[in-house]
Amino acid sequence: MKKVGLLLFSVFFVVAASFAQEKAKKETQKGHTDQNKFRQMKDVLATPNSIRTASGAPGHQYTQQKVDYVMDIRLDEANNRIYGDERITYHNNSKDHLEYLWVQLDQNMRADDSKTPLAQSTGASAFITPDNFKSTYMNEGKGFGHKIELVESNGKPLSHFINRTMMRINMPKALAPGETFKFRIKWNYKINDINKDGGRSGLESFPDGNNNYTIAQFFPRLAVYNDVEGWQNMQFWGRSEFALEFGDYDVKITVPADHIMEATGELQNEKEVLTNAQRNRFEKARKTFDKPVIIVTQKEAEKTEKGRSKKTKTWHYKTKRVRDFAFATSRKYIWDAMAVNVNGKTVMATSLYPKEGNPLWEEHSTRAVATTLIEYSKLTFDYPYSKAVSVHSERQGMEYPMICFNFGRPNPDGTYDDRTKKGMIGVIIHEVGHNFFPMIVNSDERQWTWMDEGLNSFVEILASLKYDSELFAINPAKNITRYMGGDQSNISPIMSQGDYVKQFGPNAYSKPAAGLYMLRKTIMGPELFDHAFRTYSKRWMFKHPTPADFFRSMEDASGMDLDWFWRGWFYTTDVTDIGIKKVTPLYVTDKQSDRIKNIIKSNPAAKGYFDGLGELVYITNKKEDANAAALNKHVKNGKKVPAFIYQVEFEKPGGLAMPIIVELTYADGTKEKKTFPAQIWMMDDNKATRVFAATQEIKSIVVDPDLETADVDTSNNSWPKKEETKFDKFKNQVKG
């Protein structure tokens, strides 16, 4: 049956092709460039070399710089100011001689002379605070930004120039490959109130006069120098994040004596800064894997926050191989911790939060941290650091090595709804997950936001489902369709530098995550995808990957050509829209069709061809000629003859190529799903035809029944076509 059908269709194809060739001869031939969706991306991706290989792995000549910091930090709580004295050792591991170094001064983004406010197109607000009115319309500054007190090397002033959020250090002589350079910077700055002044770090003030300090981007940090950008010294406009080098940190932080603190790194002087009771509780937490252990209770925190110590104490942290440093400190903190088993290694999951975060935080924060470490490690690599810390702040969601700041606050009476709970758990999993991307797989956030936010958001989906499958039930492909099907003038390709991206959230977070989710679930399958994703993650641990390294690694480790997917999903704003254009019911018969009779009549050679095929079974579109019995004597093993045949023509109004997923519903109510790979569109970008044979009537055909491919218009996904509802009519009128 199958061979007969193929032969018959091939004849039709040959005849149709001859007519097409004749027609083509009469038309003017025009040249064109290759715009096939499946063309390779060699015209887009950087040429591979011995630094970054064609496989997506680091090459044998790959190098990266190292920057070590020794810092003394002091918090002046009375004036909300931070003072810092840092000694920097820069290791030039590149093959280049460096005439200068670039240092990031991120706090200058909100300095009085910052260009950031001037780069924003804004109209007059209906209301404004007096302080913001004065700073906006009366040029009255707030005094923010880095105050550089000293830049020196070997006790001698070091030539430098500040260009807004970047400072160039002019070398006394070019730094040769393999050499190190040591210098010192003293600085201070006024801490911004996050809720009043904005910012990714700063302080949250409480009515009782206490502050919650979540401090990051607080010290001058070396910019990245690599084989891709040279110096990554793009200005910090406030949105696109950071590109940083790995190094070792030795940091002492002096704060009021009644504060509790957490920070990047391992605490070196536990006996000096913790009470015996706190140390004993923490020791218990190191051996407790099933639930958090309270180290500072709410009752103790409430008692402490009523006082103000005039004494200070210094917390000392050390760590190696991190790309940044952050800390949180307050006398309001409740503190809990638990041990997490990451493939045989014990990692501490901890949380700091004021009483305003309870009971939500003590119930979920540290448990969410633990789940994140376990689930992310499964899909990437074993978490290499000693701890992961979640700190509560009312309006933050920001990540740093080993520590992150997270929102999610219940009502004043302690009640909360599922939305608050979901938001809080979700942001903790997301920010802790950033330890993997980009704190370890260290992509350039300033350039390619999606490489950390998108990858992280994807793994976050899987980890969240593990934490609470009902609360976090989600279909990323379905959820992204509203964005993708929106106004094209307000959408940017994922592969856009973050500062000019429109609709930043969907572009950098949701769309990349949805794309990876589709790759795993629909296009590659979990086994292939997980191996490839893990390969990429392990290859680029503690290194600086680019988009090309990710794309190439995923293909190299899976054996799948995905250029069509990267090109469409990441480089364009095209949409998925696949539908059913036409369904032709066909039947098995022993009668020769009029069409074949006419072919033989007009072409005597065709008669010989058909005669040479021997006894034939024909396909007809006339139901009255149906005769499945004509095939009975050709069918063995007691199988039923598929008497019902349906030729389905699929259309693709959308620009993206995607697999065609088809669900067939038979007369007896049973269903069958068939998936055709995206390559079905390779030869014709507009239409594809498939034939379905069945032993019983097919009652309905649905494309993408589970909404897996981000199809923006499902009105053409069904046969017979569903009746248009009143809402559909209204929606189509609006769309029109």
Structural features:
disordered N terminus, 32 strands, alpha+beta, 6-stranded mixed beta sheet, Immunoglobulin-like
What does this structure look like?
- The protein has 736 residues and is α+β, with helices and mostly antiparallel strands.
- The protein has 18 helices and 32 strands.
- The strands form seven sheets. The protein has an eight-stranded mixed beta sheet. A six-stranded mixed beta sheet has the order 17-20-21-22-24-23, with helices on both faces.
- Helix 9 (450-467) packs across helix 12 (504-523).
Total E-strand runs? 32
Mean pLDDT: 92
Radius of gyration, Cα only, in angstroms? Answer: 32 Å
Largest sheet: 8 strands, mixed
Instruction: Report helical residue fraction.
Output: 25-40%
Low-confidence stretches: 1-16
Envelope shape:
elongated
CATH architecture of the domain at 63-245: Sandwich
Instruction: Please name the CATH topology of the domain at 63-245.
Output: Immunoglobulin-like
| Global structural class | alpha+beta
Question: How large is the count of helical segments?
Answer: 18
CATH class of the domain at 63-245: Mainly Beta
Tell me the span between the first and last alpha carbons. 47 Å
Strand proportion, as a percent range, falls in 25-35%
The largest beta-sheet arranges its strands as: 5-4-8-2-1-14-18-16
